[in-house]
Amino acid sequence: MNTLPFPPAPEPGWYADDFSATESAEDTEDTDAIESWDGTVLASSFTIRQPRTTYLLHNDATGQSITIDRSALLGRKPSETIPEGAKSITVEDPTHTISRNHAAISVDTDGQLWIEDYGSLNGTFIIRDGKESQVAGTPAKLDAPTMLRLGDQFLELTAQQN
């Protein structure tokens, strides 16, 4: 299997808003310098194809619906510096279990969707037939309909009719 061309995820704690339970954002030093550089660099091949179908990610708990019509970086505060043709999507997370740059959904040359965990602290999971499998180390094929879990947020992936 060919791996998708994503750079490694940044280490936890790199960003000013990735603080431990014992400190707050105000306690971190040089917050402005850290926030001005988000550190995520995605390869241009991240945007290699647009899906033939538009997909919808829906979170019943928050009511958020996300349209997946191209490659996307998902997170609670995802990087804005991504290649042209891709998009960054903020996933609503009232429980604070989604990482800043949590996961990436991309499309390969055959139009197949893939998901890759981006080094998140609380993991990315695909739930099929009531069984949960963690996405770790390598990208995982993503077929609709299916359920995703980012941190403790459940998002249902469905194909939309064009």
UniProtKB/TrEMBL annotation:
User: Which regions form coiled coils?
Assistant: none
Signal peptide boundaries: none
Keywords in alphabetical order, please. Phosphoprotein
**Is NAD one of the keywords?**
no
Compositionally biased intervals (Pro residues): 1-11
Q: Which PROSITE patterns match?
A: FHA_DOMAIN
Task: Report residue spans for region: Disordered.
Answer: 1-26
UniProt KW Phosphoprotein keyword: yes
**Record-annotated FHA domain positions:** 72-126
In Swiss-Prot or TrEMBL terms, this protein is called FHA domain-containing protein
Q: Which organism is it from?
A: Bifidobacterium panos
